[in-house]
Amino acid sequence: MVHTAIAQELIERRKHDLDVRQRLVDEGTLFGGYNPEMEQVHLENARRLQEIIAEIGWPTQEQVGEEASQAAWLIVQHAISWPAFMKSCLVLMKEQETTGTIDPVNVAFLSDRIAMFENRPQSYGTQFVDDDQGQLVPYVLDASVDQVNQRRQQLGLNTLEERLTELTAQRQAEQEKQRTAGERQAAQNEYDTWRRNVGWIAQ
């Protein structure tokens, strides 16, 4: 590890992100749209990471250690109000992937997340959404379930079916309220408006 202070900062910023999220879950205010306090945390972390990248490049495990490098990925994964930043980081991460200095699972998650926001099919089945009945399902896939599961296996991930079971249990543990069809449609409209406003999709 070369950049000890940066490593510690990234780890602390990830912890703050997750602590705020848990508090909002406990308060029952995280769901039902993008919580403004959560968005502010995500943007502040992303802006600081951009400064770090300008200074040292993408924070690889060799530079900041594995935990801090994972923290940098989480910050990017959560920077959903800043499409240009997320996409620029994906380019940097793919460059690192060719040299074996980054976890390919992180690249898969970020590329799927960007694809979802841009209305493109995902390749690794890492992103899940609600269907018309409010049930959690994998976001649109670019191949068959078997093919996607093969890709996941190559990365050391469990199957789509197993991941769906995990996420469903997690949702139940967080006691998210089941929304009516009208509420789901309103949430979808709000989501689409937000994506247009931040630049994921055309106006």
From TrEMBL:
Pfam families named in the record: DUF6624
Coiled-coil zones: 157-197
Organism superkingdom: Bacteria
Keywords assigned: Coiled coil
Protein name from the UniProt record: Uncharacterized protein
Species, as recorded: Fibrisoma montanum
